Amino acid sequence: MNTDSNSSRRDFIATSGVAVAGAALASSIASRAHAAGDDVIKIGLVGCGGRGTGAAMQALNADKNVKLVAMGDTFSDQLESSLNQLKKDKTVGDKVAVDAEHKFVGFDAYKKVIESCDVVLLATAIQFRPLHLKACVEAGKHVFAEKPVAVDGPGVRSIIESCEAAKKKNLSIVSGLCYRYEYPKRETIAKIHDGSIGEIVALQTNYLAGPLRKIDKTPAMSEMEWQVRNWWYFTWLSGDIIVEQHVHSLDKIAWAMKDEYPVKCIGSGGRQQRVDPAYGHIYDHFNIIYEYKSGVKCFSACRQYDRSDTDVSDYVMGTKGVAILNGAPGHTISGENKWKYSGKANNMYQTEHDELFAAIRSGKPINNGDYMAKSTLMAIMGRNSAYTGKTVTWEQALNSKEDMTPPKYEWGPMPMPPVPMPGFTKLV
Question: Cα–Cα distance between 383 and 128 in angstroms, integer?
């Protein structure tokens, strides 16, 4: 690039990455940068598993002038596998520019990735999300943060603080809670909010899914390596299935409720199929009843069973009808104001990134921080109720001192906690 182009790019990144005085000034500078046409936005990927690789493909397809310039993961084999897949992809391969000096491995790999790029894609195990997001915001980087965003109350509080700081710096934070970017659901939710089903009286959501893959421990693996490679099966890394997976469903419920969150919940859960320690210590099913200030209740269930029927469905019941978000027939309203979505379908995963990069180019940031933190907390409070057998309030979940961060991130011993036992496991 020539000197003028370099200068233009620096101006663009600076003005879209920090707070500026006045919307008109921000819009003017961003427009000039976009008009230059040669301002490459550098992307970095932290977490090179399947979801991270997918996010990188979508980010590279979201803008004509982007490059993937850095990748980081705790494991070199995972990084190389992801990089090879991206390079071979016919749609994005020519936008992959990760050289040997920008492949970072280890628990601190995120630091080097952040230094190397303008936009960071965070797709590691959930345990690391608060730490990584904080570092990104402090460095003035735009972020795509895969769902969920924390495994405990302290982590949620950290996410909230980071997202507030991002607002002050004019940074975009886009969440991997992708259903909010699906056109049919956007219109169905708009109908609910417009009163098409009347006042909401109850909600039901199911995420009844199949099993997860499992990585067997080899003699060469330390306990820490095995757990990190098998992160789905450990609460300190994933938050358990209600947090890691069912958060999608709970976020749709929160969305339908205009981002009002429940005041308390009570529930149950356990291990029915995955009882072997090879599957860590998490549950394989949860049933939670959430209650709102108005008395409205949400009946929530999730499970991961082998050789069992699946059902991913969401129902919002009102005084004038019922809206179905997921399920058959999806994106419909029955009752007084019958309706069925007939508009355009979209790839919600791609739309997330399309809107993120459009926001960066325009200088009009997106910040999904509020709902990505609170929907994560909604899942955490349900988990903690099932683990303890107790009613858990929103305030208890938010202010919990339960910090699942290990004493240190390093390869070696890592004791496995016991399987939580309701009535005996304590609420912290």
Answer: 19
pLDDT tens per residue, range 292-344: 999 999 999 999 999 999 999 999 999 999 999 998 899 999 999 999 999 99
**Looking at the predicted structure, is the pLDDT value of residue 19 above 70?**
no
SS3 call for 58 = helix
Which runs of E-coded beta strand occur in 117-182? 119-122, 142-145, 173-175
The residue range of the domain holding 269 is 183-343+374-398
Tell me, yes or no, whether 204 and 170 share the same domain. no
Indicate if 233 and 380 belong to the same structural domain: yes
Max CA-CA distance within the chain?
Answer: 67
Number of domains in the chain: 2
Q: CA 355 to CA 303: how far, in whole Å?
A: 32
Q: d(Cα 353, Cα 91) in Å, to the nearest integer?
A: 15
Helices 76-88 and 50-61 cross at an angle (nearest 10°) of: 40
Question: If you compute the radius of gyration of the chain from its CA atoms, what whole number of angstroms results?
Answer: 22
Residue type, 75: F
State pLDDT tens for residues 37-75. 459 999 999 999 999 999 999 999 999 999 999 999 999
Which position has the higher pLDDT, 36 or 283?
283
248 and 330 fall within a common domain: yes
